[in-house]
Structures are given as structure tokens and as C-alpha cells.
Amino acid sequence: MSVCVVGQNKSAFMEACANAGGVGTKLTDSLDGADGVIMVYDLIEGMTIEDETVLRKALIAGLRASIFVDNLDKALEKLDPEGVYQACVRGLDNVNVVLSTYSGAVLGDLQVYPDFKGGVAFGSASQGWGFTVRHFAKMYAKKMGIPERKMCDRLWGDNFFWAKKKTWVYHAEPEGVTLPRAFVQFILAPIVQLSQAILTNNSRYEQMLTALNISLSASDKGLTGQALLTRVMQSWMASDHLSLLLVPIKDRVMTTFSKFDKNGDGRISCSELSALMQQLDPSWSGGDLTKLMAQSDDNGDGTLDPEEFVQFVFSPTR
User: Fold this and answer.
1) d(CA 86, CA 81)
2) Are 148 and 250 in contact (CB under 8 A)?
């Protein structure tokens, strides 16, 4: 099944269906066969009228949405880290205004959250890297001895770490001391510092790579400037955000599974599913689908249970 990527002339990490400037029949057909949408939100341009229109069409179709906040690299060139954070907040607030319109007793809360609840990733699609707040929470939770969920929630919003007293506070100026918010201190600042060190050819970046457990191949070590920075960022956080970004969409996937489970026995036929997928998208070949399903069919009995179905839906395609 497809995960539909929406955005105007924007590239994304998943090759599925992109809205390249039109809200026509082709997009509508794609939404009909999709399990969810990933909206690419341009941090520089903001949400266009067309973006909002497509998002509303997806929500009307009953799809859950996740958000990829794109062009973080360009925003960091124009604004200081706190300014970038505030731009992210405004953008997500605007998106959630649309999403909340379709929330309710049946669909539940459709809004997206950068913290542990999930549904938001940040990065640069053009450079091929991205992350979720949870990506950094995993790293810092181990270092600071804090549960991952609690660390994740602290890395967004009005949370500040007072290093001198080794404590967390909820305002930026305790006792007259100005503190950066956690998202800036623990996420944006390291990105900025690493970027500046590489672009200015400061040898300090090698120590930073070691600290981040990033190793480069022999050929990569010969790169300089922007080419080196792009490769480093891809090595640091290339794709782990995708599985976390798709978590909110899995509810939709399980709803789809229940529709295919005609016998109500918790299993669906691979052959029937293959035939249906080829009806939705004739470009699929029976051979390709057979191989993909075989990789997910752990029992080898020609059927998929719920766990195997989720594995199949999120498996790499063509």
C-alpha cells in the first residue's frame, strides 16, 4: 500500500505520490489508495493555500497526517536557533488548526506533536537528512539517566536545562540567568556548531564526529565544504525518523487490515491483496508483490497477520 507524500514541488524521503502543483483526479485517486499522508511543510515559504487544500482533501478521505518540516538547513542560515524554533511552532500551530477541524469522537485527535506523541519530523529533504525529537531523546536519555519519554517531552516547549545546578526549569531566566530552551540547546545548537565547523574547515569537527559516533568512509573523508556537511548529516540522521514519523499512520493501516480480513480470522490472503493492489495501481507487477509479501510472510503460509501486514506496508518498495 502507498503512503502518499503531499507538497508543492517538494521532494520527500519516500517515493510514492507527490502533489506537484495540482489538485486533480490523479491526486484524488492516490489518496483513495493511501494509508496516510506525509505533508511536507516548507519552513521558509510556510503553508500555501494549495497545501492546505490538499491536506483537507486527505483528511476528508479519512487519512491521518504526519508532518515533515522541511528546509531546516535554510532556516538556520536566515535565523538564530530560537527564531527557527519559533518558526517551527508557528508552522505546526497553523497545520494543527486544520487538523483539529477534523478531529472528533470517531477519528480521535488528528493533531501532530513534536514530542513523544509523534507525527512530526524536521530536516532537509534536498540534502537527504531528517530527525524526530525522539531521535535526540534516545541519545540524551542514556547520557542523563532520564526515561526516553520524559526526555522527549522536555526537548520541546518551554523547558530549559540549568547546567550549573543540573536541574530543569520552565522559564528562560531563573535568578536572572538566561538559558536557551532545550530544543535549541540539545538539538539545533549541535547542528549549527557541526555545520559551522565543517564549512569553515575547523578541525574541531573531527572531534565532534567522534563524540557523535559518526564514521566516514575513505572516499567521504576527501570531501570538503557543503558536500562533506551533507554526507555527515546523512550519516548522522538519514532515515531513522521515518519509522517514528509513520507511527500515527499505523492506526489507519490496521483499519485497512480489518477491511481485508473478510473471514475475521486475523489473516488476509496474499493473492487477494496482490490482485487488489494491482487494481489500485496497475504499475505493480505480480512478481514484485509476491517478493515483498514473501519477505513479510514469516509463516510462509500465503497469508499475513496484523504484524506481518504492518511490516509489508512499511517495507522498502521498488
Assistant:
1) 9
2) no
**Confidence (pTM):** 0.73
Cβ atoms within 10 A of the Cβ of 305, count? 19
pLDDT of 240 > 80? The answer is no
Structure confidence at residue 233 as a pLDDT band (50, 70, 90)? very high
Q: Which domains does the chain have, with CATH numbers?
A: 2-130+243-248 (3.40.50.300), 133-236 (3.90.1430.10), 262-313 (1.10.238.10)
Residues 300/266, Cβ–Cβ less than 8 Å: no
Pair 149, 244: CB distance under 8 Å: no
pLDDT, residue 136, reads 92
Closest CA to 187 of 131, 225, 148: 131
- Cβ within 8 Å of residue 81, ≥6 positions away: 180, 184, 188, 189, 192
Cα separation values, 246 from 35, 75, 269, Å: 10, 24, 24
Cell of 255: 483499519
Per the model's pLDDT, the better-predicted residue between 218 and 313 turns out to be 218
* pLDDT tens-digit map of 3-23: 444 444 433 334 344 554 555
Residue 15: count of CB within 10 angstroms of its CB: 13
Cell of 159: 523547558
Question: All 3 cell numbers of residue 57?
Answer: 482533501
- Return the top range by mean pLDDT from 183-187, 260-264, 273-277, 313-317: 183-187
The SS3 call for residue 314 is: coil
Pairing of strands 64-70, 34-42: parallel
